[in-house]
Design brief:
Elements lengths: L5 H8 L3 H31 L3 H19 L6 H31 L3 H28 L2 H11 L3 H12 L5 H18 L5 H21 L4 H14 L1
Helix pairs in contact: 3-4, 3-6, 4-5, 7-8, 8-9
């Protein structure tokens, strides 16, 4: 029985040159089609959102852009990264607050307390990671600028108001006021609405007023004195 050599076996099983090329092209085209379908599917998932959600994303993107633009950063790529960080933080907080509120609607009694505690823990972690990431992009003043931007500039505005109301405050008293307002800002950053943000500052302003009263200041009289000074300016 005649033996088949390796070369003759290859010649019997190999496709003609043209057919081999066509088969290779078919495989390549199939791969490209699959990749293309995957890209289309991904694009669809990115755009498959409600009009309300799209409007929300545009709003927080604009808000984040205005906050970061106020920092007057020199590098465009840093500005873009920080803007993305701020917008992502707003969105993450919104999602957490929505999840918490949904769980609270289904919870009773002690369950509500547990839901709030667990949500607070997650929000604290979001806050910690956000500030840490900001710190890799910005110096300390830049991080403070973002925090003030996210809280309507209440800290510097309120400090200036107290200094104007009570111009004879000591350095120690001024530091105490700043410490209270700075702590309030950390909580206000994570609040889900303007009302909640201002609520945190209102709480700490109450503490400040109690502190100043204990220090011997009559705030009502100070307001009258300020009005008199202002009328003479």
């Amino acid at each position: 029985m005649p033996q088949t050599t390796a070369s003759s076996a290859h010649s019997k099983t190999a496709l003609p040159r043209g057919a081999s090329f066509a088969a290779g092209m078919s495989l390549a085209m199939a791969t490209l089609v699959l990749i293309g379908l995957g890209s289309v599917s991904h694009a669809a998932s990115e755009t498959d959102i409600s009009e309300e959600e799209a409007a929300y994303r545009r709003a927080i993107a604009d808000r984040a852009s205005r906050i970061v633009s106020a920092l007057r950063l020199d590098e465009a790529d840093v500005e873009q990264r920080v803007t993305t960080l701020v917008a992502d933080q707003y969105r993450a907080l919104r999602d957490e607050h929505d999840s918490r509120d949904s769980s609270l609607e289904e919870a009773d009694g002690e369950e509500k307390r547990v839901v709030r505690l667990e949500s607070d823990r997650r929000v604290m972690e979001l806050h910690r990671r956000f500030v840490a990431r900001l710190s890799t992009e910005l110096d300390a003043d830049g991080v403070v600028g973002v925090k003030n931007g996210m809280t309507y500039g209440v800290v510097p505005i309120t400090l200036a108001a107290y200094h104007r109301l009570l111009p004879d405050l000591s350095e120690e008293q001024r530091r105490t006021l700043r410490a209270h307002l700075t702590e309030a800002r950390e909580y206000a950053m994570d609040a889900g609405s303007s009302k909640e943000k201002h609520g945190w500052f209102g709480k700490y302003k109450g503490r400040i007023n109690n502190y100043l009263s204990a220090e011997g200041y009559d705030l009502k009289q100070a307001e009258r004195d300020l009005a008199a000074r202002s009328s003479q300016e």
